[in-house]
Amino acid sequence: MDTSDKRTMPSGLTAGVQPAVALRESFRAGYRWRDLRADVLAGLVVGVVALPLSMALGIASGVAPQHGLYTAIVAGAVTALLGGSRVQVTGPTAAFVIILAPISATYGVGGLMLATLMAGLLLIAMGLARLGRLIEFIPYPVTTGFTAGISVVIASLQVKDFLGLSLPGTPEHFVERLAALYLALPTYHAPDVIIGLFTLAVLVVLPRLTRRVPSPLVALPAAAVVAAIVASVRPDFSVATIHSRFSHMIRGVTHAGIPHLPPLPILPWNMPAADGQPLGLSFDMIRGLTTAAFAIAMLGAIESLLSAVVADGITGHRHNPDTELFAQGVGNVVAPFFGGIAATGAIARTATNIRSGARSPISAAVHSLFVLATMLLFARWLGYLPMASLAALLLVVAWNMSEARHFVHVLAVAPRGDSLVLVTCFVLTVLFDMVIAVSVGVVLAALMFMQRMAELAEVRLVSGEHPALSEPLPEGVLLYEVAGPLFFGAAQKAMSELRVVGRGVRAVVIDLSDVPTIDATGLVNLESAIERLVKANVFVTVGGVQAQPLRLFARAGWAKKARRFVVRRSLDDAIRLVREYAATMPQPRGGSGILRAR
Q: What is the C-alpha separation between 425 and 321, in angstroms, rounded?
C-alpha cells in the first residue's frame, strides 16, 4: 500500500476526552469543497451498504427492522460528529447480535433499549476515566477467538429464515439451537431456499467481478424482483418478506412493513416488554439489566476501538480513543430515546467508507442522512425484501467476520499457549457468551505472559570478568547481577540465590541495571534477601537502579531503614563503596565470585 499520501497525526488527537475533536481537526486542516464532495459520495456508498444491514441486524437482534434503521440514523450521526476518529462509521453490528437477541427475548424491545442506555452511560464513564487504551490489553488470540465464535453463532441464527423453517422459537443456547434446527429441517420452504441461494450467489460472485457497486445494492433488490416475478407466474411461490413478518401501528391503525416516519422521541422504559406491556422503570429492572449493559459496553468498547485502529492503519491518521469511547457512549444514550438499539464502530462499513474516499466525520453523518431519506421515501418498497435474502446477507457478514484464514494461521504458527487461548475463547463464545470468553481469555493470556516473564529470571554462577569491573573484586566480595522485571511471578525465583551465602563473604553488590521495574512482591523479596545478608554481617550495596525501582525504594523508606546497606543509582559507585569497605576489613579465607541472576 502506498503511504506517500498519508496525512500525519494532528496535534489534537491525543489522550483525554475532547468532544468532536476529529471534526474540528478536519476543519482546522483545511476543509474544502472537494473534501465535502468526497465525503458526500463516500457517505452515499456506505448508506447503501448500511441500509439492508441495519434492517437485517435489527431483525437478528430480535426487534423490528426499523429499530436497526433508527440506530444507524441517530447513533451513526451523533457518534460521528462527537467522535475521535475521522472515518469511523457507527451503527448496529453483527457482533452485538449474540448479546442483544437474548435481552430482547427476555425483556422485549423496551428492555433492550434500557440496557443500551445503561451501556452508553458506562461507555461515557470509561471515556472520562481515560480507558481508551483498553484495546491494547486485549491479546490478538482473544479477539480472534471470540470474533470467530460470534460469527458461528450469527450464522446459526440465520438458518431458520434462510431455509424458511417452521420453528416456534429459537433456543437461546447454541447446542439447543442446533438440535431444534435439525429437528425442523423437514419443514424447509423451497421458495425461501431458492431466493436465499440466489441472493447468496450474487453476494459472493459480484465482488469478484467488480467492487464499484456494493453487492447488497444489487443482490437484495434483484431477489425481491425475482421472487415477485416467479410468484406472479406461480401463485404457490411465496416467500416471507418484511411486509409479511413485521407490522407497525400509526394512530391506532396497524400497517405492514416498516413505518415511513423519522425516528420520533420516546421514553425507552415505556416501550413494550417481552409480554407486550410497557416495560416500566424500577430498581429491580435496572439491576436485572446490569450484566447485559456491562456486556454491551465492553463489546462496544472493544469493537469500536478495534475498528478505529484498523482505520488508522489504512489512513495513517490516529484516533483519540478516549473521545471515541465518550462519543460511542453518547450515541448509545441518545439512540434509545429515538427507538434505537446498541451501536458501535462497524469495521466493514468503516473500511467501505475509507475505500470510497471519506475525508472527515461528515461522510458518516451523510450515511445517516441517506438511511433517513430512504426510510422516509421508500419504506413501502423496503418491505418487499425477502427474509431469506436478509439472512443470506448476514451469512456473508458472518463468514467475513470469522476471518477463517487468520484463525487457521494462528493455530498453525502461534505458540501452544496462544492457540489454547484462541480455541478457549472460540468455544466459550459459542457455548456460553462473549463476556465469559473475553474474561477467561484475558486471564489465560495474562497467566501465560507472567510465566514467560518469570522464565527470564534465571540464576547461574559464571566465571570470568564482569563488564563493569576494571579489575577483579577483592576476596570475599560477590556480585549479583539481576536482569528482567522483578514482579510477583519472577521475584521469588530471582531472589532465591541471595538467601544463602558462603563462609568468608564480607560484602555483596546487587546490580539492578537490567531491572526496568519492580512490583510490591519484588520489593518484599529483595528486602528480605538484603535483611538476611545484613543479619549475617554482610555489607550490601545496590547499584545500577533505574527510575521506577528508585522511586519505589524511596516510597518504601529505604533511606531511613538502611543501616548496613546502601543504594546507588550508579553501579560504579556501588562497586567503589564495596572496594572501600573491603579495604578496611581483614582478608578472609575463601574467594570471590560473580553470581549472575538473569
A: 25
146, 269: one domain: yes
Are 484 and 395 contained in the same domain?
no
Bridge partner list, 461: 595
Q: Do 492 and 375 share a domain, yes or no? A: no
- Of 355, 384, 402, the last residue of a domain is 402
- Half-sphere exposure at residue 359, Cβ-oriented, CA atoms within 13 angstroms: 19
Same domain membership, residue 352 and residue 214: yes
107-112-118-121 Cα dihedral, nearest 10 degrees: 180
Q: Are residues 326 and 206 in the same domain?
A: yes
Least confident of 136-150, 235-249, 480-494: 480-494
DSSP structural state of residue 518: B
| Cα–Cα distance measured from residue 443 to residue 451, given in angstroms and rounded to the nearest whole number | 12
Do 356 and 499 lie in one domain? The reply is no
Task: Give the range of the structural domain holding residue 507, as residue numbers without chain letter.
Answer: 459-597
Both 397 and 472 in a single domain?
Answer: no
Q: Which long-range contacts (CB under 8 A, 24 or more apart) does 103-108 make?
A: 103/62, 103/289, 103/292, 104/61, 104/62, 104/63, 104/274, 105/62, 105/172, 105/274, 106/274, 107/273, 107/274, 107/279, 107/285, 107/288, 107/289, 108/271, 108/272, 108/273, 108/274, 108/275, 108/276, 108/279
CA gap 290, 288 in Å, rounded: 6
pLDDT of residue 562: 60
Give Cβ neighbours of residue 419 (< 8 Å, ≥ 6 apart).
141, 410, 411
**Eight-class DSSP state of 94:** G
Neighbours of 71 (CB within 10 A): 35
The domain tally of the chain equals 2
- On whether the CB atoms of residues 223 and 387 are closer than 8 A, the answer is no
Whole-angstrom distance, CA of residue 582 vs CA of residue 579:
5
All three cell numbers of 322, joined, read 478516549
SS3 labels along 251-308: CCEEEECCCCCCCCCCCHHHCECCCCCECCCCHHHHHHHHHHHHHHHHHHHHHHHHHH
**DSSP for residue 511:** E
The total number of residues written for the chain in this structure = 598
Residue 499 lies in a domain: yes
- Judged by DSSP in three states, 482 sits in strand
Domain end call among 369, 402, 435: 402
Confidence (pLDDT) at 519: 86
188's grid cell: 424447509
Instruction: Please list, in sequence order, all residues whose beta carbon lies within 8 angstroms of the beta carbon of residue 97, skipping any fewer than 6 positions away.
Output: 57, 60, 61, 150, 153, 154, 157
What pTM was estimated for this model as a whole? 0.81
Question: Per residue in 20-74, pLDDT tens?
Answer: 999 999 999 899 999 999 999 999 999 999 999 999 999 999 999 999 999 999 9
Q: Are residues 335 and 468 both part of a single domain? A: no
- Looking at the domain assignment, is residue 592 inside a domain? yes
Beta-bridge partner residues of 510: 480, 542
Which runs of consecutive H residues, i.e. helices, occur in 359-433? Answer: 362-382, 387-402, 404-413, 416-431
Q: How far is CA 162 from CA 172, 185, 191, 198, 407, in A?
A: 18, 11, 10, 11, 26
Residue 123 forms part of a structural domain: yes
Q: Which residues pair with 518 in a beta bridge?
A: 486
pLDDT of residue 100 exceeding 90, the answer is yes
Q: Measure the CA–CA gap between 505 and 596, rounded to whole angstroms.
A: 16
pLDDT beyond 90 at 473 = no
In a domain, 443, yes or no: no
What CATH number corresponds to the domain at position 543?
Answer: 3.30.750.24
